[in-house]
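To: structure subgroup
Subject: Chain for Friday's discussion

All,

I'm putting the inputs and outputs inline so they're searchable in the archive.
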Amino acid sequence: MWDPSTYLRYGDERSRPFHDLLARVGAERPRAVIDLGCGPGTLTATLAGRWPGSRITGLDSSPEMIARAAALDVPVTFGVRDVRDWRPAPDVDVLVGNAVLQWVPEHSDLLAHWATELPAGAWLAFQVPGNFAAPSHLALHEVAGRGRWREPLAGLLRAAPVDEPVGYAALLTGAGCAVDAWETTYVHLLPAAGADHPVLAWMEGTALRPVRAALDAAGWADFRAELGVALAEAYPVRQGQVYFPFRRIFVVARTGAHAEENS
């Protein structure tokens, strides 16, 4: 279960990659814009402001997230949908996937299908975290592999579920797209306020969801306490804050490498 409030705890930090991604999308008057994995809808709402004449739709597999999004007073249609089952309609000129594909096994196959199913000249833009070798994830795997946690958490934590920028660029170029791919490491300055380590609080909104779902209340409390100790060692508090580097991978592809600009 996704918790919108927990996810939005670091809303400013999580929103910046979305805006950096969309800055490279050159669509002027798209007919339909789809935001896959829209979460609580706050970022999807900005698309309505950028393209006021377009039909904007936000889709997410979490009913909790869509309930939060549907409460927004914005000209956007929100709905519950699994990314793996979605296929583009003929008028989808912009497809956005912001920090969602890392949750989808074999998403490279989906990207290849979307690249050929979208109309010529459409924009496919996505970003995924590229921090699976970061100290935060290494600490998570190390704690989860300890004796007490090994059995209940077996198979829940994934190795790096995303490709590198070159891999995505090659995939989509091979599908006939013009591709812009890059990576950025953001250094988030997280205030060290309260009892919990700030990186632990960050991870509760995303990477720790499967762990929390697998443990009872007492087990979860013990696990997060152990992980908090490991994270405090990996990310010490300095000047009242934690310096949290976070690498992200960005791809913007235009279907039909020689497509004309939308009229």
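Points worth raising on Friday:
The two ends are 42 Å apart (CA to CA).
Residues 4-255 form a domain with the Rossmann fold fold (CATH 3.40.50.150).

D.
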